[in-house]
Design goal:
The structure holds 2 protein chains of 2 kinds. By secondary structure, chain A is mostly helical. Chain A has helices at residues 10-20, 22-48, 50-56, 84-120, 122-137, 140-157, 159-163, 165-184, 186-200, 203-210, 215-252, 263-271, 281-309. In chain A, helix 2 (22-48) crosses helix 3 and helix 4 packs antiparallel against helix 5. Chain A is globular. Chain B is of the alpha+beta class. Chain B contains 16 helices and 18 strands. Chain B has helices at residues 2-30, 57-66, 115-126, 144-149, 179-182, 193-199, 253-261, 279-282, 311-319, 323-331, 359-368, 388-405, 416-424, 443-446, 463-474, 478-495, and strands at 38-41, 71-73, 80-82, 85-90, 96-101, 160-164, 167-171, 215-221, 225-230, 244-248, 267-268, 288-301, 380-385, 409-414, 430-436, 499-511, 516-517, 533-534. In chain B, the strands form 4 sheets. A 10-stranded mixed beta sheet of chain B has the order 8-9-10-1-11-16-12-15-13-14, with helices on both faces. A 4-stranded antiparallel beta sheet of chain B has the order 4-5-7-6, covered by helices on one side. In chain B, helix 15 (463-474) runs antiparallel to helix 16 (478-495). The longest helix of chain B is centred in the first third of the chain and has 29 residues, at 2-30. Classes of the chains: A mainly alpha, B alpha+beta. At the A-B interface, helix 8 of A face helix 7, helix 10, helix 12 and strand 14 of B.
């Protein structure tokens, strides 16, 4: 790269390496298409109106019960005659939203927690890291289940939920946010702390401090930008894990309640149809297929980002 | 060295067989149980095995094998025939029954059975501290209701007395035509006094558990199985042709079908255990049976919670349920949609039609009640027994109410025991429920919605309704009685609507017709275990 007139910034170099990774780019394209569909489909239905929108509304009961995939219902219909294609996209809203929120929580809490622990050090560090250790030592899925059920019961009685219909509907999703957010940031905090610990003693940080920079300045200008690569890589790997957790919880019946759907509840419905007489394969194949593809895509992107930011592999 | 090596080689096969033997022996320890003669998939895990506590059909089907009453049901017709009572006499005015017990009655543990034991058992069923939800089945006995309500403290004034060791005299409040049928009902079964006095409420956990039915309980493992063995001391043991019967608590329809298809079960005997989406295929199979019987699926409202205290709201919700769609698309077993609680086919009674599907009128009613277009109507939950069939019906109603009335309902599926508890404690707003006739009379359906009945579970108390049912109870003229019942049912399903009937059940079960026999289709969907046996079993 020495022949280039101007040296590229680390971010630009990483971007270039990422673009050369075909699998990662393919995965990114798939995700963009999925997100556009998820956001665009309800809009499209609203714009088109008429019988098409009516037949494809995710909650609309119809007489076309268990019809296999066809030109009209691309992914077939379920026991209530609802369009599975619409329901998969509708479910994706919840699944991806929960994944996104979990990832954001991991970004905000994890980075701040880790950075403070690593930078301040000493007793603060010990305290913050012991908290992480304690949360780590709890069995994750049981912790989430207990959190969701107890918190759910408490909130259900509260004035806010009983009075406002919107809050009632959103309660389940909020609980998922809280439950999954609660565990998503732990590894991130550890990774960030480790990075900060090693950066803190580097010469350029020492120099900045000698020149009178305060901790906020140092964190903002020197440390955070330098751990950016690691953070973004880890975020891309956190998201599929959270989407998977959400599917698992919803599969167990702890996630969203009908008529809402997420990939987990759709798969649970599909699995209920496996029997020796006749299998409505589209009920399990399409929700499962879309979910597997999405998880794969997210993992490929995570891998691509890791390779792109990995300085040693250059 | 040499010797040692030789010995090694020589013994190698011996060692191999020794280890093999140990492994087989160990695995033998794990599976030492002999196979059952008949394996039945029974539905949800039983709530209890106490005849006076249970309310669910699945529970009763097990308990029926373990305990017995004065009468038992004929497996073919489901009519009561003499069991522990060899014969009985009814006084000319129809109010005094004298039962003569058999002389060869003993518990499976050897203690003799006497008429006084029945007095104890019926007192226990009525005692307020037993809290039997089915105590209403004994209200026909003189002073039964008063004792159960706590208005009468002295149990001896209840109209059941032992004249001698083998004679039981029962006095009724009014002549009750179906009292003999009631004597075959689990709440009126005999329970072992000595065990209950020793262990208290947990008496069913005693081993050996004394039983007076055709079978004794070998083992009841939670969520695994209940295993019954033939009771050799049963008075009619010669006619029990199964040695061991296993009852599996499997509640999922698809799981039940899978287990059956793998030949790990011979009988699947409940409508909730049939995957309804496969009915179009199943219904044509020779091992699959459908039959009509006395059972209704209905929706309960909790009258003690707003806004369901308003009859207009209840009627609006009832009129917004498209029953035809539910029976055509979800249940699919040929169930007739119904707007009346008492199913067709009940003796001496012609049911009254209730609220028809009419979304337009429903919207109007809801607007009158103060919720035009569903505006301001609170979110509410629908309590469901969490099996696929009922959840699917729930999703349908959810959408019907949303579309027709603009109101939002949330499903609350619960496990069987928790579901029963929530229903009994009125911890619900709307609830999907069912009722299977306990005997062939309109009383078994209409009687439970009187104010004090333990199975009311709606909080609905209506003096006019109570009076009509009481007057019908007094009545011996069948025509007048029918008319009174019809007036009561009109109140129940049309004017007040604390419940909204949805459809009449079809009996659905499947079993290997070439391997088991003794299971018949009857109006109560009742299949006494004693009659069920493997084909060619010794007599």
């Amino acid at each position: 790269m020495s022949d280039l007139p101007q040296p590229l910034s680390p971010g630009q170099q990483a971007g270039r390496r990422f673009r050369n990774n075909r699998t990662a780019v393919g995965a990114a394209v798939y995700l963009v298409v999925l997100v556009v569909l998820v956001l665009g489909w309800p809009l499209l239905l609203a714009l088109l109106g008429g019988s098409f929108a009516h037949d494809h509304a995710p909650d609309q009961l119809s007489d076309a019960q268990f019809s296999p995939p066809s030109g009209q219902h691309w992914f077939g219909t379920d026991v209530h005659g609802r369009d599975v294609f619409s329901r998969v996209l509708y479910g994706a809203q919840i699944s991806l939203l929960v994944g996104l929120v979990g990832t954001l929580v991991s970004l905000v809490i994890g980075v701040v927690w880790g950075a403070v622990a690593g930078y301040v050090g000493g007793r603060v560090d010990s305290f913050l890291m012991r908290v992480v250790d304690i949360l780590y030592s709890l069995p994750t899925i049981i912790f989430i289940i207990v959190l969701i059920t107890t918190l759910g019961e408490v909130l259900k009685q509260s004035h806010l939920v009983t009075q406002s219909p919107f809050m009632g509907a959103a309660l389940r999703v909020l609980l998922l946010f809280v439950g999954l957010g609660a565990i998503s940031w732990l590894t991130m905090a550890r990774i960030v702390r480790g990075q900060v610990l090693s950066l803190r003693t580097r010469a350029f940080v020492e120099a900045s401090r000698t020149l009178g920079a305060g901790p906020v300045w140092v964190l903002q200008k020197h440390i955070i930008p330098n751990i950016f690569g690691v953070v973004i890589t880890y975020l891309a790997l956190t998201m599929p894990a959270i989407v998977l957790y959400e599917a698992f919880l919803s599969y167990l019946g702890l996630g969203v309640q009908p008529p809402m759907a997420s990939w987990g509840t759709l798969m649970a419905e599909g699995v209920g149809q496996i029997n020796p007489i006749r299998i409505y394969w589209w009920l399990i194949f399409f929700p499962g297929g879309v979910m597997v593809l999405t998880l794969l895509a997210l993992n490929f992107i995570g891998d691509g980002l890791r390779d792109a930011w990995d300085i040693k592999a250059k | 060295m040499f010797l040692h090596q030789r010995a090694w080689r020589f013994y190698l096969p011996a060692r191999f067989f020794f280890i093999l033997g140990v492994v087989l022996g160990l695995s033998g320890c794990l599976r030492h149980e002999p196979p059952a003669d008949v394996t039945i998939i029974n539905g949800a895990e039983p709530e209890s095995m106490d005849p006076q506590i249970i309310t669910g059909q699945a529970d009763m089907r097990i308990v029926q094998g373990l305990f017995e009453g004065l009468m038992r049901l004929d497996p073919q017709t489901a009519r009561a025939v003499p069991a522990m009572a060899e014969r009985y006499e009814i006084s000319p005015d129809g109010k005094v029954y004298t039962f003569h017990l058999r002389t060869n009655l003993v518990w499976s543990t050897g203690e003799p059975i006497q008429a006084a034991d029945y007095v104890y058992a019926w007192h226990r069923a009525l005692a307020p501290e037993t809290a039997s939800e089915y105590a209403g089945q004994l209200y026909y006995i003189k002073n039964g209701e008063a004792y159960n309500n706590g208005k009468l403290a002295d149990a001896n004034q209840v109209g059941v007395h032992a004249l001698d060791a083998l004679t039981l005299r029962v006095e009724l409040e009014h002549p009750t035509a179906f009292f003999i049928e009631l004597c075959a009902f689990p709440t009126l079964y005999l329970v072992p006094r000595q065990t209950i006095e020793k262990y208290g409420d947990g008496w069913t956990r005693a081993r050996p558990l004394p039983s007076c039915g055709a079978f004794e309980l070998v083992d009841w493992r939670l969520n695994d199985k209940a295993r019954l063995r033939k009771n050799p001391r049963y008075w009619d043991a010669v006619n029990t042709r199964s040695e061991i019967i296993d009852l599996l608590p499997i509640a999922g329809a698809t799981t039940a079908l899978n287990v059956y298809e793998q030949e790990r079960a011979d009988i699947v005997w409940d409508k909730t255990l049939v995957p309804s989406e496969l009915l179009d295929v199943l219904i044509h199979r020779p091992d699959f049976h459908t039959f009509s019987y006395l059972g209704t699926m209905f929706v309960r409202f909790n009258i003690t919670r707003k806004p369901f205290d308003d009859p207009r709201v209840r009627r609006a919700l009832g009129m917004a349920i498209d029953r035809e769609r539910i029976v055509k698309k979800i249940t699919r077993g040929g169930e007739p949609a119904t707007s009346s609680l008492v199913p067709p086919g009940v003796a001496n009674y012609d049911p009254v039609p209730g609220l028809d599907y009419n979304p337009e009128a429903a919207r109007k009613l809801l607007a009158e009640a103060g919720y035009p277009g569903g505006k301001g109507f609170p979110r509410f939950t629908d309590l469901v027994y969490g099996v696929k069939l009922y959840e699917d019906i729930g999703v349908e109603m959810q959408q019907m109410w949303r579309e027709n009335l603009g109101i939002t309902m949330e499903l609350r599926p619960l496990e069987w025991k928790v579901y029963l508890g929530a229903q009994a404690h009125l911890d619900y707003e709307v609830c999907q429920a069912s009722w299977i006739g306990d005997y062939n009379d309109a009383q078994t359906f209409l009687g439970m919605f009187t104010s004090e009945d333990g199975n009311n579970h709606t909080g609905w108390k209506n003096p006019e309704y109570d009076a009509l049912i009481a007057r019908a109870g007094d009545q011996t003229d069948l025509k007048v009685r029918e008319h009174l019942f019809q007036q009561a049912e009109t109140l129940l399903v049309r004017d007040q609507a604390p419940i909204v009937p949805v459809y009449v059940y079809m009996g659905l079960n499947y079993f290997r017709t070439n391997r088991v026999e003794g299971i018949y289709q009857n109006l109560l969907d009742d299949h006494p275990l004693q009659a069920i046996h493997r084909m060619g079993a010794p007599h």
